[in-house]
Amino acid sequence: MTNNAKRQLLMVSLLLMLTASLSACNAVTRIAQVGTAPPITPIENPTHAPGYRVVSLPMPDPTTDRFMSNSLWRQGARAFFKDQRAARVGDILTVVININDQATFDNETERTRENTEDSDLTNLFGLETQLEKRILPESFDPTSALSLGSTSKSKGVGKVDRSEELSLTVAAIVTQILPNGNMVIQGRQEVRVNFEVRELLIAGVVRPEDITATNQIQHTQIAEARISYGGRGQLTDVQQPRYGQQVLDILFPF
Q: What's the predicted TM-score (pTM) here?
């Protein structure tokens, strides 16, 4: 056995041992909990949890509020009362997504072409008799020496029947203020149920005037909207073809 084969065998053995040990620990834990209620995770400081990372998001430049004497107006305010709508980098905006699209297309194309060409060579400089004796068979008929014909037919049928419906609400963060006052927003939401993660992404450009008094905006009022809703996990993996099959579908010409 070569050294490379020995190393591969050792790695496989270690992997099997690690898997077996993890399975054994899980089995021991489950056996120890027989007859008792599942334990509840204690309340702990989330910053001390393994893998915790400090959140870093776009934030507005620090400003100092200045008040004018004998005035109830606060500098930088958009109204006489405090405005709760998103207006600065780092503010949160609620996006309401209600997509209900339907589309139906039915196209059919048919094309037929038929060509026929006949040429009679009754005389070939007087040599047709000599050719008939030496080269051409005795049954050769100069009056039907050449005949061409072609037939072409093409038919195409296409049909699309699509119906999509999506109703979600997600919070987005203002990441940039454009020179004309419009705001760039981006939001992401992840929900994990057992071993499946549902992920929603939203991004685009909104006008401050379209934001309602409750700090909400419809997805139809977002310019350059990018909405993505999908999942990842065990169920999603099962629904997708294997990588080898996907490669064959791309490369195989038939």
A: 0.56
